[in-house]
């Protein structure tokens, strides 16, 4: 059985693949795929009042090579930034019990 980190990595990859197959390229996310991923996979972190222009801005930030798509490296980079942000936000909180196995 895979440990927690192995499962997390597999989950990150499989979520990208789940949404990347809907437009022309199976290896990138178009804006519609990215929007759906955010709405379904991060619903509590994606404001419901997000407008289309907000998704445009978010897409332009993630799309570092400006090809109008988010590739896997850009996707992982954004998740890494999110992890750093969460770490900084919660680092002064009291320690919690480890995840249940």
Automatic annotation (TrEMBL):
Keyword line: Calcium, Metal-binding, Repeat
PROSITE patterns per the UniProt record, alphabetical: EF_HAND_1, S100_CABP
Domain S100/CaBP-9k-type calcium binding subdomain: 5-47
GO cellular component: cytosol; Golgi apparatus; plasma membrane
InterPro entries: EF-hand-dom_pair, EF_Hand_1_Ca_BS, S-100_dom, S100/CaBP7/8-like_CS, S100_Ca-bd_sub
One protein family per Pfam: S_100
Organism domain of life: Eukaryota
MF GO annotations: calcium ion binding; calcium-dependent protein binding; transition metal ion binding
Family: Belongs to the S-100 family.
Protein name as annotated: S100 calcium binding protein A3
Gene that encodes the chain: S100A3
């Amino acid at each position: 059985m895979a440990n927690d980190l192995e499962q997390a990595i597999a989950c990150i990859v499989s979520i990208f693949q789940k949404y990347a197959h809907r437009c022309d390229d199976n290896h990138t996310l178009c804006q519609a795929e990215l929007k759906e991923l955010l709405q379904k996979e991060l619903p509590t972190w994606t404001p419901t009042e997000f407008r289309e222009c907000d998704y445009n801005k978010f897409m332009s930030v993630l799309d570092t090579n400006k090809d109008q798509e988010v590739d896997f490296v850009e996707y992982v980079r954004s998740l890494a930034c999110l992890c750093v942000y969460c770490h900084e936000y919660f680092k002064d909180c009291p320690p919690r019990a480890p995840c249940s196995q």
